Protein 1
Amino acid sequence: MAGKIGLNITQICLPRECTEDEIIEEVLKLNEDPRVHGVYLHLPPASLTSRVLNTLRPEKDVDGVSDLNVGRLVRGDMSQGFTPPLANAVMELLARHGEQSPIQNHGREMSGVGPLTAALRMRNVVQSSSRWAQGQQYRPWTLRSLKLQPLSPVPSDIEISRAQTPKPVDQLAQEIGLLQEETEAYGRTKAKVRLSLLDRLREQPDGKYVLVAGITPTPLGEGKSTVVIGLVQALSAHLKLNSFACLRQPSQGPTFGVKGGAAGGGYAQVIPMEEFNLHLTGDIHAITAANNLVAAAIDARMLHEATQTDKALYSRLVPSVNGVRRFSPIQIARLCRLGISEIDPRALTPQEVSSFVRLDLDPAKVTWQRVVDTNDRFLRKITVGQASTEKGHVRETQFDIAVASEIMAILALADGLGDMKTRLGRMVVGSSRSGQPITAEDLGVSGALAVLMKDAIKPTLMQTLEGSPVFVHAGPFANIAHGNSSVLADKLALKLVGEDGFVVTEAGFGADIGMEKFFNIKCRASGLRPNVVVLVATVRALKMHGGGPNVSAGSPLPREYIDENLSLVTKGCSSNLRKQIQIAHLFGVPVVVALNVFKTDTQAEIDLVCQMAKESGAADAVPCHHWARGGRGSVDLAQAVKQASSQPSHFQFLYSQETPIVEKIRMIAQKVYGADDIELSPEAQAKIDYYNQQGYGKLPICMAKTHLSLSHLPEKKGTPTGFTLPIRDIRASIGAGFIYPLVGTMSTMPGLPTRPCFYDIDLDPVTEEITGLF
Amino acid sequence: MAGKIGLNITQICLPRECTEDEIIEEVLKLNEDPRVHGVYLHLPPASLTSRVLNTLRPEKDVDGVSDLNVGRLVRGDMSQGFTPPLANAVMELLARHGEQSPIQNHGREMSGVGPLTAALRMRNVVQSSSRWAQGQQYRPWTLRSLKLQPLSPVPSDIEISRAQTPKPVDQLAQEIGLLQEETEAYGRTKAKVRLSLLDRLREQPDGKYVLVAGITPTPLGEGKSTVVIGLVQALSAHLKLNSFACLRQPSQGPTFGVKGGAAGGGYAQVIPMEEFNLHLTGDIHAITAANNLVAAAIDARMLHEATQTDKALYSRLVPSVNGVRRFSPIQIARLCRLGISEIDPRALTPQEVSSFVRLDLDPAKVTWQRVVDTNDRFLRKITVGQASTEKGHVRETQFDIAVASEIMAILALADGLGDMKTRLGRMVVGSSRSGQPITAEDLGVSGALAVLMKDAIKPTLMQTLEGSPVFVHAGPFANIAHGNSSVLADKLALKLVGEDGFVVTEAGFGADIGMEKFFNIKCRASGLRPNVVVLVATVRALKMHGGGPNVSAGSPLPREYIDENLSLVTKGCSSNLRKQIQIAHLFGVPVVVALNVFKTDTQAEIDLVCQMAKESGAADAVPCHHWARGGRGSVDLAQAVKQASSQPSHFQFLYSQETPIVEKIRMIAQKVYGADDIELSPEAQAKIDYYNQQGYGKLPICMAKTHLSLSHLPEKKGTPTGFTLPIRDIRASIGAGFIYPLVGTMSTMPGLPTRPCFYDIDLDPVTEEITGLF
């Protein structure tokens, strides 16, 4: 990723006997080589065939041969581009070079280079250089919006998505200033964006950084993703401001279970929604492959250690290849951690050999689980190793859903390939019988993990229904991990939108969880500072917090949620909404409340929420109608966000990383959740002692708490008080870089209901149209 | 996939108040719409801005506006393209249309359409039509080869791969006559090819169809894939014949275990080899997701049926949505199979409801397994459902490696999206307590499977080290499945190479298994007929068959394999090689023996093999040096294949599908393997009775036998005789469409050794270069 400064002009000067094909092959290599900024074609005239000339990319054409070929340059352009002062400068330069001029040295095969030709060449060098230099700079956007004509009643998500033709993704990429070599298309509507962009635009100031969080939701969800998409549609298609949405990639499992897709909804969607919801560019599949390679390595290693002597293990781990025994780099890293400086395999003492070959993993202390991107409840607890080939080494373990993998959290927090590789290597998979943490690097697998993840680290570019750019990247769990999209997608987007642009990113769950982790974990990792928090509320959730009856998926909504009820709304606003605004203010960031309007909401209810939100300290509060009307329905929100982003933000962390683990947990519990105090189980206390001893005490905290209440009790709505937060256990994701206290039991594997979504999902084999996704 | 004949010319005629953006949006939609072959722009002159004019694709430009815009058409082309007879014809046509002319009807906003303009328009209609018609036809190749300069000693595979710059895949696609809309790039070096190609080129005669099979191999493998790649490099880069390699996608698991990659080797490789060996375009990941969705559906369904009444199940499976209960199409398919014609959910009798809602799967008779693309031996036998949420419904089951999934076999045999969907739906996952087969469609999951597999069905285009095209598609197991690359890749390639071109495809294992299945299963499914079989042999394997000592992975080769030993070679040729040639002749196809030369082979050994092969009936036999020298080292083989392909081929199946199951198995055992007879276990006999009863008797047979011997005993080399083939058990892949008798135990999950390949695999985070893949 190191920056390359300067200009690299290469000459092609092949022997006379080269065939046309061989020349073209050379040209194509140079066309593709990003290190070469321009090419001279110094060839015998007979070799300068039109095929050769047409092969060289115009932007690399220093000689202007492709222009000369069609005769335009000589006849038309001399009077305009090639001014007398420039011509003089070029002549002077040429004269100064004298015999040393590369043009004269290598031009011997040509028919004679007169001053005009030489000058033309120099002009082309200058043009080529300035083209290159411009290429390194920021390019203003020329975003073309897609027209939206919302229908009423609003059709199904897949129908809306299918009715809109997305721009070709290479066109979108060009519109937002990406260079051709910075994207890798995956089909016509998705492209991965290379991280080299960060290097090219490193001097470019970032845009405004907007976080979308929510109040404590009902189990049905309150539409944060649609708010993100609607807001970006409004900012880009209606206010004509550069803006980018950064979304999490959804797990594919729930798409076929109960939840359905996650590409937004109604007229605020990422399109094509089926591409968004299925496979995408394979990142989650790569995570699954990497995660399960670690798991296979763990069990196989325990078996091999249990059935082999030190000597046998050593002769296999460090085999003689053509008579030479050598440690691999990954093995040398393990030797270093063991304090063994010897790198000649023959020179290790038997004790050193033993400590090198035996990870001595305690089967009862393996914390690494297998994963699968399917809602498969029967894998929640399993016994493995029951075939006779595994010689009785059975073990109880479990599968989690793929997005619960620590590798997903790493993908979301890494700020480059090197950082990702380091984090993958330091992942702790369990501990030895003597209590030492065992890492992925100890297993020898960390290089392979980086290889498996090399493409997953590039964010995927897609677009909204109105043609605004979207990055989809990473989707870690919001309880056992931090629940935010990736640091890298946000960073790339902030450079691309430019100083006056907006990047809107999303945090999972309610603000007490997703936003708190966004600030304390993600912003700490990235160094980025948010300008505005958009807090999403719904009348439905506010009524629930105000004392409305239970809301649950699959049951019809009680009357209170359909009819106007200002009293419930008032109580909801003065409890949960007010508290969540206060939480954002703890971090010093202005808040705009976005009321996601449902068709059953009355004007009086809407007005009441907006008024009370502002009374509670929100910089502004506006209703949004993006679901029914697209970006046009979120223009007020966009204006409010733009206004709030010009206010000063005084961002601060809730705690310093130097604060002891227990104190960090207590601060979150008291200041964010409103608990009186915390209560540690003996297991939790023992783990804290262990983590402190291992040097993990400075890691930030990632609370694994229900999102359905500010407290640990899902049924406590509003602003619960007078409770003590129980810390049942504590775990650590050392690679991702956080410690996660468990408050209650977290399910890491969803199940399938009696009638999963898949009953309605179908594909027409003739039209290739998908039905039933939502 | 139905063909579209005729020309669809669309007009854009928008209201005056349309903005430029709105017009461009319309144009872009029509640009992208494959159903529209040409576009008229009937717009007010003020709207015909250069942005609008430049947006319309030239090939869709019926008005020639983009030409008019740059002024070339009027000034330059009239005298050439627009002959007086054509002008007259156009005038006549216009006159006949009179007031009904669409041009006059919609041209009211324009400044007046004179005869010249009208004529120009018509000329452009004609041009546009003929462009379209040409687009539907075969396009001759203009393949550019990549120059290869082999080094000695031969560097590592990854070094060779990295040293060559592949052509951009869109360029390769264009060179071999693919239209832009027929490819979907996945990065710069891989592209999926759409099946619509088959429709466009349906009238185009197929090229020659060459199968590469092998003699019975040593456990080290004899290099069939490198022969395929070397042969295609020779045919295309050296003989300048259109040719295509069709390869199987390797499982990713073994890449990190013992085997390493499968992109060929030395100077006969698919590049970039790391892309070939990792993720590729996600097909195996899609198979994993689809396979495991079925598995999750099975266990969840058994749990739901076990814990709910008929009524509860019915009300959940056919819920009331806004007061209406309705069966989904997948449920109606199940009703049909049950013989229930009623489609009003309220009208079913209680008995009908019960038989509809209860699959009544017998847990002991579930045959569907979960899969993972990782070598994870601890998943060979597991117990699932041990969490308390699964209420004691534990069950023993297993994971297989992903490529062992029946869905992989279906991908390889399907001849279109519709066929794949049908096969996915009819997959049998187990049987009910009353012995009825239960299908994926009964589970309601078949539509979702087709959706998950919609992109996997498109073959992936890559290239060899010398720039020849390669399809990588599907990679079913060669024992429990048929071990061949996909029917669709072969079909696409046969159309693309054209009548005089060559498609070289590969069968797994030795010819007794892979080739027999290629003929009896794959050719039966595809209707394709092979022209030549290339039979790969090595001196090493021949010596083994001649009585040489044991060869095993990880141990040094005994001296017999390094020193010249004509006696062992002779015995090997007269046993295994001769027999495998005879097997190919059973099917009426000429054989060319390709001796894959190793550096320890002597000239006398090489000559001996070639001589004896020809004596055994091979049309030709030649040594190949592709590993060390690339295509140039396989030119002799290419010439021999070209020669043999001009011989008549009298292809015939070994058995008719009407032959009873037992007889089919016996014919394979006796005629192909050389067994005296077969011996059925009682389980096998019972299964045959069951399959006959279920109507599966006409399916072809897919033997699951060791590949290390013609017999069932891996240690029996050469041409074993005097043995009886034991059929231990019989299983069926009803979706894929074959019955597979088990001869011995087949491992469907590899393990990791003490020091897996991953110890050496690494990624440089700065250069992004991968090391350690081979």
Protein 2
Amino acid sequence: MSQSFRQRLWAILEVARPGDHVSRGFDIVLLSLIVLNILAVILDSVPSINRRVGPALNAFEWFSVAVFSAEYLLRLWSAPADPRFAQPIRGRLRFMVTPLALIDLIAVLPAYLPLFGLDLRFVRALRLLRIFRAAKLARYISALRLFGDVIREKREELILTTCVFGLMLLITSCLMYFAENEAQPEAFSSIPAAMWWSVVTLTTVGYGDIHPVTSLGRLLASFSAILGIGFFALPTAILGSGFIEEVEKRKKHHIRTCPYCGREISR
Amino acid sequence: MSQSFRQRLWAILEVARPGDHVSRGFDIVLLSLIVLNILAVILDSVPSINRRVGPALNAFEWFSVAVFSAEYLLRLWSAPADPRFAQPIRGRLRFMVTPLALIDLIAVLPAYLPLFGLDLRFVRALRLLRIFRAAKLARYISALRLFGDVIREKREELILTTCVFGLMLLITSCLMYFAENEAQPEAFSSIPAAMWWSVVTLTTVGYGDIHPVTSLGRLLASFSAILGIGFFALPTAILGSGFIEEVEKRKKHHIRTCPYCGREISR
Amino acid sequence: MSQSFRQRLWAILEVARPGDHVSRGFDIVLLSLIVLNILAVILDSVPSINRRVGPALNAFEWFSVAVFSAEYLLRLWSAPADPRFAQPIRGRLRFMVTPLALIDLIAVLPAYLPLFGLDLRFVRALRLLRIFRAAKLARYISALRLFGDVIREKREELILTTCVFGLMLLITSCLMYFAENEAQPEAFSSIPAAMWWSVVTLTTVGYGDIHPVTSLGRLLASFSAILGIGFFALPTAILGSGFIEEVEKRKKHHIRTCPYCGREISR
Amino acid sequence: MSQSFRQRLWAILEVARPGDHVSRGFDIVLLSLIVLNILAVILDSVPSINRRVGPALNAFEWFSVAVFSAEYLLRLWSAPADPRFAQPIRGRLRFMVTPLALIDLIAVLPAYLPLFGLDLRFVRALRLLRIFRAAKLARYISALRLFGDVIREKREELILTTCVFGLMLLITSCLMYFAENEAQPEAFSSIPAAMWWSVVTLTTVGYGDIHPVTSLGRLLASFSAILGIGFFALPTAILGSGFIEEVEKRKKHHIRTCPYCGREISR
């Protein structure tokens, strides 16, 4: 009977199957809590809001940690209900190293670290780690798998593109360092500084905090910027075509992903 | 006979059928009035022009409201001439909630609100609402349907892309807040402020009002900017392919949309 | 015999046929003169260069005008050698209104206007018109036809896209004017000023001379910038696919355009 | 026997064949040395690092030059082991003018030039030339051939696009010079200065160091920026489609390029 209770609990904790209203309700509660946690982190960072509702946000943080901890422990306890994690010890260990279980652990663990006495600056950084609770959404937005699949499918091309971008970055920043260092020893103080300029230019962001002023520098920058446009073409072609291929494949295999519940729906 | 007059009026008010010169003339007059209204709003906002021709623009506004009000009432009166809105009361109510009828109502209603005594600041905002009279153009530019169809067709993919963009925004802004808050407590004062930076960078707009100054911040910003380029690929692939598909489909079904009169033309 | 001389002259003036070395030589001389004219306009605008070699540039200008005038008159005289312009009067008139002949006329005419006494400021503007001599290159770079064909083929879609861009511009600039006018009465002084911001943002150029500072303004600007990315997708899809289609079509019909001499080459 | 030693040496110096562990080891050592050289150039340019570890970087430079020189001489000596460079003198000369051998020479030659007495400023520039040692990577990243092939395949279209970009640059910069020169004689001082603005705008980088302030200038700039978006479409279409075609072709011919070792792998 404990086994059947464990199976029921596992079913509730997992993403709900169509018709399982209790499990669906649990999913909605947990989803809301994750979204509220994200909002809390954002609001917490605004000084004026922090001053007013800081204690409330703190209380909500502890409440969230308690709920997420309980969720994690219950998942761990009921894991053997899944055939993949059948054995009490080894199954649970195997469950613990699944990506989703690791995310769940990382979502609560940093909250317990200050208890062991750490300096305040580090604690502040830990507080920010709470934002990674957003990763808990991954369980519900299984549509993210589409993106993962596209990136996996086009792995080689993307690595190649990154290499080429790296070489372009290296060459343009060295040339610009040579061209502008004398005229602007502050802005183009070193090759790494020139690299910041290169990234900003090749991606066509163009903040304008660093820009060439000499004729030679402007000529080189012009070629860099035009190269940057050419470079745009590659991720657009690779990711774009990969995305369309993957969507076609799914449509062909009668797989649809509901954008709301994150489920794959067979037609 | 009143019925036949009503039907004639309805035909004139609707977009003209080929050969109906009276209705065509009415369409041109109304179209011109809408375009002049848009121009009036724009000119009204320029202080130097407002000072000189303010009263004339005001008079034109009241004239426009009168014409648009008459147009709306005539449409409402003659609506039962259309089989879809056949019954005198229920038909007219059903007509009133169609999108185009609602747009016509919103185009005139704000002009009457000040009559009921409202504070001036709110009135100023209401004046600006006049710009939504541009939406009245939707009746005539039925080519806009093409865009609507593309967006409807690619609904799921666009929602997915928006979700992914939201996550990227969240993660990059949290990391940048952590990296830059200490060095620039003014610019990166909070996560929402960092979000503004994130949007400006991920879309490669790059105003340069906020930009990272620390090495860690610049490294993170570089990755964000490159991610931004990758992200460009998705709407380009989704909307681009959707647009081409839709145009092909229309060409295949011998449907052409005249870009001038906004009509669909069968070949 | 005069007729055969006229035909020979016409053949020389026109783009050379393969093997006609005299005509080829004339083409190269004229092309060089056009390119030198463009360089002269550019150098003329640099104050330091203008001060040193101004008189030489002036002399070169008069030499060019003389050559281009002679070229135009000879073309006009020999035009009836072409069957399209066979009649002495009507044929020449018909020749005069062809685009290439009009370009040739515009290339020399402004140089004669100061002779009729005009104020200096206008003369300065006329001098700049010389840059349109670059249009004379159109005769030689017939590959430009490819672009013309793509734009003609995709006329409707481009008009549609321009309309949608116009509506986006109108709506985003009105909203931003409303959101930012009070906080930055200088920068967002009127809707036309806000339109400048809109163009800079929707095209993702982002100079940073005008940018929102209020929370509402930044929120609206974020949506505008994301819309801007979406808008990128449309010309990319339209022009990109049109360009590829046109190149395919030409390859299929064994038409190749030499990028150097601008000729279409049949295989 | 010397011949067989020469052949073994040639095999080791060349990129390793599968199973040749000695040659593989040599490749890894050389690759690491190249990467360390790149890092050294970058670190050398940072003043704070240069002050601390300058002598060590200098020593590493001389060590690298020694190794690369030895590598070049050994390659030259063992070249006749390759059937392509069979003859002792003519074969070696033919080897010396291959692109990879020239790169190897350029990688070491500048280091020897200061020995012949040159002024210091020139030496500083020569030091920077070391960055071109990165080109030695070309031997190992044969995947770069994919990019070379795409560019070669689409040569004509890219030349055409560059011509059109040049014309757009010319026309927009002349118009802007005319529109803004009077209002901003400093920023738009000459047509070449306006060209810098044009490049920054047409590529949508938008640093904001030069931007129009007059109404006419802003109108022209708006059209330029929109043209810039249209121009984006062309390299995206050309390079993107070329890249996808080339990848397809390689997949069809069972050619895969390992992104790590840079080898083409037949399946």
